[in-house]
Design brief:
The complex is a heterodimer. By secondary structure, chain A is α/β, with parallel strands linked by helices. Chain A contains 10 helices and 12 strands. Chain A has a domain of about 200 residues: P-loop containing nucleotide triphosphate hydrolases (Rossmann fold). In chain A, the strands form 2 sheets. An 8-stranded mixed sheet of chain A has the order 6-7-8-3-9-10-12-11, sandwiched between helices. In chain A, strands 2-1-4-5 form a 4-stranded antiparallel sheet. The longest helix of chain A has 18 residues. Chain A is globular. Chain A starts with 9 loop residues before the first strand and ends in a 14-residue tail after the last strand. In chain B, helix 4 packs across helix 5. In chain B, about 30% of the residues lie in helices and about 25% in strands. Chain B contains 11 helices and 12 strands. The chains are: A alpha/beta, B alpha/beta.
């Protein structure tokens, strides 16, 4: 993957995360769930990079490895810190990780379970500040007020508890908390999927505004392709633990190169009855990551599958500048994107 | 709407309230619409708009402290004779012979709606034996057939599986098999694909459409996903805070929406067809808490076109505006 080394904020190389399957009285390991299997990608500073895929494709596990909420099985996660060093997050010890934690923050999916109901907004948003040494109460209160204003909440609300707020407002609180320590990378795992449609738009707009205002970098994890298209500059599609395609948003949506991406795009219902069309309906279900098929994991469901697809595993190659795809037949296929 | 088509179900001014210590929640507050024979009616709205309670009211499975306090739910039998379901005893013979037999239901969460301690087959067989009065062996044969029709591979083996042994998509197919096992005339599908991935969703929507064509049943599709509505429905009912704000054909709703809420909702969704990284239109504020329901038109605090001195005092009625479309908004009333 060529991209000038010194410009990247994050570079993930050959990341693997396997979970053991244990059985029986002795809890012997009888197999592995290959949740993330040889995933490589990079994120430039100031951009929004999205991981999309269906449930169980490993997109959340990938983001959790980057945050080191779980320890990767193998691979490198190279992160450029604020002082310009490049560290391998995958290899750090818990102590060494601590200063890094302030540079990577997370926005959670469910605004109802991710806020402690017994803490006021001041405590919730102020906690990361306190933990990181801002012990002066007045200064902290001032910073919390500033953060609440930033995300469109009134600072007078800071003495209230989360139950007094709607889902969209709670998600704003979660965003304020994530931004408290000036993070360099914000990981947002399905940040709008629990919200009503009319509120989704507000939060997506807020995230775009904050990005241009503060120069944030987002790693956006989602299953909703319409939302992903709306917010991302580059998108990677995952299928059973592997990256199948990665490209700038326009390229991925209008000229997809992988048959799975094509099927995924075609499956999204379009909110216009005049655009009703014949969809590509995939047969069968997603492969089992504990017992994946041979060759290309997608071949049993792929309508373009050839002999080679069941024998050899395709590697991710750069077919066009910035457009990576893992498919034996990518160069010859003419696939349909969003029309 | 659409008088030339005989309705199958006619909901008139339905009111279902929940009486709680903290106050009364008017979950459904005067909803009216028709479900035509063999057609698909979409009911859309955001959380708290009363779409699920409407479905539960029709099936008479509203749980206490909820109660239907007014209105009619007219069910037209094969001879065209209406029965008002609100007048029936929810546990009585007549209602029980309708529920599951004439009106099938698919729930949102296929995992929790199956019993974990009975096989999927037993749950289908139970429904068939209860409603059709056939022998065990015949019911089993029909259950296998039902599973085959919804596209479950190897139904002879799968029939003895428990719900947890099936994947999300297969579980939802099994749910549809239960709902369709007695050949209902109306299928109520409450967010049938919300818990599923897009490719599985596409499979299930195609399946529903196919089965509808084969059997000529009507579908009442309850969802918040406007994409699903656009793909599936003939007519659409838009609800907000327990009230029907707009009714019309799917084309009218998506292309000539009249109500400010419908229009704002359509503008606020990011569609896969819109260009990336442009600002979305938003609806200001959020859905009010059901205890703090606004006076007058429930949408007025968020409405960009509200008429001062009118919208916050009076509630607009649902009025026909031509072309089978109705809207409840003062902007479309002829004020003298």
């Amino acid at each position: 993957m060529k991209a000038t080394q010194d410009q990247l904020l994050l570079e993930v190389k050959n990341l693997r995360k396997f979970f053991p399957i244990r059985r029986g009285f002795l809890q012997r390991i009888v197999g592995q769930v290959r949740a993330v299997d040889d995933v490589s990608f990079f994120i430039r500073p100031g951009e929004t990079f999205s991981l999309v895929g269906e449930s169980g494709c490993g997109k959340t596990t990938t983001s959790r490895c980057i945050l080191r909420a779980v320890r990767p099985t193998s691979g490198q996660i190279l992160f450029r810190t604020g002082d310009g060093r490049v560290v391998d997050v995958a290899a750090l010890s818990a102590d060494e990780l601590k200063p890094l934690r302030r540079e990577m923050q997370m926005i959670f999916q469910d605004p109802f379970s991710s806020l402690n109901p017994r803490m006021t907004l001041l405590d919730i948003v102020g906690e990361p500040l306190l933990v990181n040494g801002m012990t002066d109460r007045a200064a902290r209160t001032e910073r919390v007020a500033e953060l609440l204003k930033l995300v469109g909440l009134r600072p007078e609300y800071m003495r209230r508890f989360p139950h007094a707020f709607s889902g969209g407002q709670r998600q704003r609180i979660g965003i304020a908390r994530a931004l408290a320590l000036h993070p360099r990378l914000v990981v947002a795992d399905e940040p709008v999927s629990a919200l009503d449609v009319s509120v989704q738009a507000q939060i997506l707009n807020l995230m775009l505004d904050l990005q241009s205002e503060l120069g944030l970098t987002y790693l956006f994890v989602a299953h909703d392709l319409s939302v992903v298209k709306h917010i991302s500059e580059r998108v990677a599609v995952m299928y059973v633990g592997r990256l199948v395609e990665m490209a700038p948003t326009q390229d991925l949506f209008y000229t997809p190169k992988h048959p799975y991406t094509e099927a995924l795009l075609s499956a999204v219902p379009k909110p216009d009855p005049r655009l009703r069309s014949k969809r590509i309906v995939l047969q069968g279900s997603v492969a089992d990551p504990a017992n994946p098929p041979s060759g290309c994991y997608f071949h049993p469901r792929c309508r373009y599958a050839a002999d080679i697809c069941s024998r050899a595993t395709p590697t991710l190659v750069e077919l066009e500048p910035g457009h990576f795809v893992a498919c034996h037949r990518a160069a010859e296929l003419k696939l349909t994107g969003v029309v | 709407m659409n008088d030339q088509r005989t309705p199958l179900l006619s909901v008139r001014d339905l009111k279902t309230y929940f009486f709680q210590d903290e106050g009364t929640v008017k979950a459904v507050d005067g909803a009216s619409f028709d479900v035509a024979r063999g057609q698909t009616l979409g009911i859309v709205g955001e959380s708290g708009c009363g779409k699920s309670v409407t479905a539960r009211s029709i099936l008479r499975i509203v749980e206490a402290p909820g109660r239907i306090v007014g209105g009619q739910i007219l069910w037209y039998d094969a001879k065209g004779q209406p029965t008002d379901l609100t007048q029936l005893d929810p546990d009585g013979h007549q209602m029980r012979s309708l529920r599951g037999r004439e009106i099938g239901l698919i729930f949102q969460e296929p995992m929790t709606s199956f019993s974990p301690v009975h096989t999927v087959g037993n749950q289908i067989i139970e429904a068939i034996r209860l409603h059709m009065g056939v022998s065990k062996a015949e019911a089993r044969r029909r259950a296998i057939e039902a599973l085959r029709q919804v596209g479950i591979p190897q139904p002879e083996r799968r029939i003895d599986d428990y719900a947890f042994q099936l994947s999300g998509g297969l579980r939802q197919r099994a749910m549809i098999a239960v709902a369709l096992s007695c050949d209902p005339r109306l299928l109520i599908a409450d967010e049938p694909t919300t818990a599923l991935d897009v490719t599985t969703q596409a499979q299930i929507l195609d399946l529903l459409r196919e089965l509808q064509q084969q059997r000529g049943m009507a579908i009442m599709l309850i969802t918040h996903n406007l994409g699903v509505v656009a793909e599936m429905c003939d007519d659409v009912v838009v609800m907000y805070l327990g009230r029907v704000v707009e009714v019309g054909s799917v084309d009218a709703i998506f292309h000539q929406a009249k109500h400010p809420y419908t229009r704002a909702l359509l503008r606020s969704i990011p569609a896969i067809t819109t260009p990336p990284r442009v600002k979305l239109h938003t609806i200001t504020g959020s859905i009010p808490h059901p205890y703090n329901r606004p006076s007058g038109c429930p949408f007025h605090p968020r409405c960009p076109e509200r008429l001062r001195g009118l919208c916050e005092v009076a509630e607009p009625a649902l009025r026909a505006v031509g072309n089978g479309q109705s809207v409840s908004c003062f902007l479309y009333e002829n004020r003298a």
